[in-house]
Amino acid sequence: MSTETIAHPQMKIRVIDPNDHEWLKQHANKHDRSINFIVNQAIKLYKQIQGAAV
Asked: Per-residue pLDDT tens for 11-22?
């Protein structure tokens, strides 16, 4: 059995608009998710939309 740990890339998110950041925090809390989860879901959705537009 291997005891290796897999390192996942980390990222810092900088939200320019304080209102957007506040909305993001509230949305994450409301749905019991992390901000990172919400951002990852938004990226997946964006990729789907872009793929459909091509």
From this structure: 777 777 999 989
For residue 41, give both structure tokens: 């879901």
Q: How far apart are CA 19 and CA 29, in angstroms?
A: 15
Cβ-Cβ contacts under 8 Å for 36 (sequence gap 6 or more): 13
Distance in angstroms (rounded) separating the CA atoms of residues 1 and 24: 40
Measured distance CA(24)–CA(15) in Å, rounded: 9
HSE, side-chain direction, 13 A CA sphere, residue 45: 6
**Does the pTM of the predicted model rise above 0.70?**
no
